[in-house]
User: What shape does this take?
Amino acid sequence: MTTILWILFCLCMTFVYMLSVQAATENKFRLKTGAKGDICLKCHEPFREKLKARFVHTPVKIGECSGCHNPHTSPEGKLLDEVSTR
Assistant: This one.
């Protein structure tokens, strides 16, 4: 019985670890939860007016700027994560 409990415990701990790794990956820049694009607008306040335009880049509209831009550092222009093909 002790062996079965130990196996279940190990499986549970593995599952919890995998969830924490996934959560850390999804917020790879360790941004404050719920901040999303609002954190970008702290420094880029004039950009707020562009968000009122009829057509806005979808990731920007939903506040997912960090999906393509690294807010800390990047060797690419405009702090993009990858080289732009456009």
About this structure: The chain has a mean pLDDT of 74. The chain has two domains: 1-30, 31-86.
